[in-house]
Amino acid sequence: MDTREKDIEKLKDYKYGFTTDIENIKAPKGLNEEVIKFISNIKKEPKWMLDFRLKAYERLKLLKEPNWQKPKYPKIDYQDLYYYSAPKSMKDKPKSLDELDPKLLETYKKLGIPLQEQARLNGIAVDAVFDSVSVATTFKGELTKHGIIFCSMSEAIQKHPDLVKKYLGTVIPVTDHFFATLNSAVFTDGSFVYIPEGVKCPMELSTYFRINASETGQFERTLIIADKGSYVSYLEGCTAPMRDENQLHAANVELIALDDAEIKYSTVQNWYPGDENGKGGIYNFVTKRGLCKGKNSKISWTQVETGSAITWKYPSCILKGDNSIGEFYSIAITNNHQKADTGTKMIHLGKNTKSKIISKGISAGFSDMTYRGLVDINSKAKNSSNYTQCDSLLMGNKCGAHTVPYIKNKNFDSNIAHEATTSKISEEQLHYCQQRGLNPEEAVGLIVNGFCKEVLQQLPMEFAVEAQKLVGISLEGSVG
Amino acid sequence: MSEQLQSDFYKLVKTSKFSNEEIQFKKNFLNNFIKKGFPNRKQEDWKFLDISQIIKKNISNLSYFNDYSQSNKIDPSIFVDGLEHNKIIFINGRIEKIDFNFEDQNKIEITDETKKDISFDYENSLIDLNCAFTDKVFKILIKKNYSLKKPLIIYHSINDEIKSTNINLRLDFELGENSCLKLIDYFVNNTTKNFINIFYNFNLEKDSILKNYKIDKFINNNLKYSFNNIEQDNNSVSETFILSAGSDYFKNEINCNLNGEYSSAFINGIFSLKENQQHEIRTTINHLVENTKSYQLIKSVLGKNSKSAYQGRIFVNSKAQKTDGYQLSKAILLDETSEFNAKPELEIYADDVKCSHGSASGSLDENSIFYLMSRGLNYQQSKELLINGFLMDVVEKITDEEIKNLITNIIGLKQ
After folding, report:
1. I want to staple A334 with a disulfide (CB 3.0 to 4.6 A). Which of A223, A338, B21, B202 is the partner?
2. What share of chain B is helix, strand, coil (3-state, %, to 5)?
3. How many Å apart are CA B384 and CA A156, to the nearest integer?
4. Which of A188, A210, A214, A182 is nearest to A62 (CA)?
5. CB-side exposure of B203: number of CA atoms within 13 Å?
6. What is the pLDDT of residue A24?
7. How many Å from the N-terminal Cα to the C-terminal Cα in chain A?
8. CA B324 → CA A342, A400, A426, B410, distances in Å?
């Protein structure tokens, strides 16, 4: 058995959280109708939600796990996983920062994350240190004033069933690919956002401020709806490294922008990438899709992917409304034995639709980075245009950088331009920086940040500074 | 399909003089093909144009048997004028004539063999089909230090005498040290609705030069597939030019292994497609050692209902430092119904490399047309001038002056 398989084996034995204070019920192991009914029941879901899950499960039975991706992984036994785990109880959580991995603490220090936040990120019983509840409630008050709904998915299903019913599964149907369908069948929780007509959301929404967000969950489901003329900027994840016991993460994120609405979705993903020898780490198989449903709508994805053993995701835009715009900005960094196969899909259906893709891939160590993207301009998408730029940077000759763009132009009024380059950091640049007193690691950090600048600029202010540091930290040990 | 294949194979064996061993050898390929069937869109390499569907739609009575024991009449009217050349003439899949009149006969060696194995790994079932149904495989060896004085033109011709709807042919070329071969593939097909499957194997030794020009210009309803495998040693150069314009379906596939240092490969292609044509070029360049170079330029002009696809792959091994790889594809879509697909792929495992690719597609630039019209050309003339310039760019890349002129004339471009 190779090491990774052993690791999965270990995880299977890890029976955390099934005897907690909140839920004293154990979910049976495996995937079947009973388990799905169990999840639905425990969350007190209405019948239509259960039907949605069961429909997805029926479909799942017919689907096969895809295997066209570049990073291969040992086969996952889906019958040997737990699909429902109640949140950890207070007594299972670490009592203080001293109990944490010193390596983790070191990274926090480098990122400049305050102590209170560090505690919060690790789910330490924080009440004494940091009154998170009060912070969250202040935000809630402000949001309610504008009529914005920002709550957990389970809450939305109870309180706003009409909205959920209307939009859930419209962008990622239950009949989608394997992992998306699996998520539809067994998702546990996630975020729900609704921005009413004409409202510009006054602050950056972040999972961080949602009270129950400390547990990211294995099968997260997020739904964001921006009604006519509204605007929202949503942040997912944070720059601090996240440890999580679940190996497989198959989340679904659906965005819907109606007429003149704009959604900006930013992700910083820094999950456990496994150790230097590629042992362990999280599989991040996420389906993210945005639908520009209305005229003049805009969806913009920004991602900084530095964590996970395997990152396999393509945040996409379906540009259905006329004059709609899709954007994708990405930085993906892989080090040690990490693997990433990421990119985007831009599907142009409406007239005068525009899309822009900027992807920066950096691979170091023994890692493998693939940009895979699709630009498809439909025959009805008159006068559309796309611009794609994907650059890769290689550090050392043990790693790989690959670019696999698919370009389909079926409309003669439309233009597609694509360019890609692959190179290494030039000796001259390094020399120049070192001559001015930077050590090699700092020099690489500086150059890489310059390489990523176009994407870092797209991040909201709060994130940008930390993300910049993160880029440097992720490449530690890859120089020299 | 399987029954037809079996019985046609039996007929082939009966009319040939194959030994038992040779029959068994061919039968393995036949069984492979029966097992795999024609490639379809589920396979990544056939994603854009699904050959199994295209064959099904166009050829209802697919049969494979050609009687290689019967010779065919050569029609001299097919020959290219105005260029002295050596000839190899294929008629209905059978080699009718090999003529190296302009060359020193001692410097060229022609051998044939039936049991000719494939030296590389492949999944492509069309190679199996090819190996099962080809006649003897001719191998042309150009000896050390010899450059052919005149180009060699291979005529691919089919006449009404053909009994089947599928032709398979194969040639092997070996270019000795410091030798040079200019090779033109010239397609003249009088019949319609045949599937032609061509497989060339080139072995380029040190310092040798191969120039291969494929000219498919005359409108015909045949479906064609051509596969070139090129192995290159130190300092060798291969240049491939593809004019893809005549057939209903034409897929050119080139697999080039740069095994020797300082070897280089150049691939230039033109798609000039009209009504209902579907053409594809797929290239794989494997940079396996240090200091190798590849350059690819593909341009398409797409008319009504036509579809072109370009899949280009540059692979750089971790040993292949200092690789220089470049790839550019451009397309002009002339009609609402035309379609362009591209998949320019980079797979890189070495850090000290310079690799880039670009792809652009769209309609003719209205500003340029306006510019030309303001200088007295009419709309049609302006359009033609722009397309002329667009394609001339590729033709200019041809390094042989004589052949460049020939091809310019064949396409009907103005210099």
Report:
1. A338
2. 25, 40, 35
3. 61
4. A182
5. 15
6. 41
7. 33
8. 25, 16, 15, 32
B44 vs A: CB within 8 A: yes
The verdict on a CB contact (< 8 Å) between A396 and B351 is: yes
CA dist., res. B310 & res. B296, Å (int): 11
The closest CB to that of B360, out of A410, A413, A416, belongs to: A416
Minimum distance, in Å, between the CA of residue B381 and any CA atom of chain A: 20
**Residue A467: partners with Cβ closer than 8 Å, 6 or more residues away:** A239, A268, A304, A456, A459
Query: What pLDDT was estimated at residue B75?
Result: 85
Joined together, the tokens standing for residue A23 give: 């839920």
* Owner of token pair 């036949």: B30
Domain ranges within chain B, ordered by starting residue? 2-380
- Please give the ipTM for the structure prediction: 0.86
Closest residue in A to B358 (Cα) is: A419
Q: What is the mean pLDDT of each run of 10 residues along chain A (480 residues)?
A: 50 33 55 87 88 92 88 84 61 59 67 61 42 52 87 88 93 91 88 92 71 55 94 80 71 94 91 80 90 95 90 94 95 90 94 95 91 93 93 88 92 90 87 91 88 88 79 72
Given a contact cutoff of 8 angstroms between Cβ atoms, the answer to whether B33 and B128 are in contact is yes
pLDDT tens digit sequence for B312-323: 999 999 899 999
pLDDT digits (tens, 9 = 90+) for B193-206: 899 999 999 999 99
Q: Does A386 touch chain B (CB under 8 A)?
A: no
How many other C-beta atoms lie within 10 A of the C-beta of residue B334? 18
A394: closest chain B residue by CA = B351
Q: What angle do CA B331, B334, B339 make, to 5 degrees?
A: 60
pLDDT in tens, A72-118: 888 888 887 777 765 554 445 555 666 666 666 676 666 666 655 66
* Nearest by CB: B343 against A404, A412, A416: A404
Displacement of CA A96 from its chain's centroid (Å): 28
Looking at the partner chain, which of A379, A402, A423 has a beta carbon nearest the beta carbon of B354? A423
Cβ of B380: how many Cβ atoms within 10 Å?
Answer: 8
Contact criterion met (CB < 8 Å) for B360 and A418: yes
Mutate which of B316, B343, B361 to disrupt the A interface (most A C-beta within 10 Å)? B361
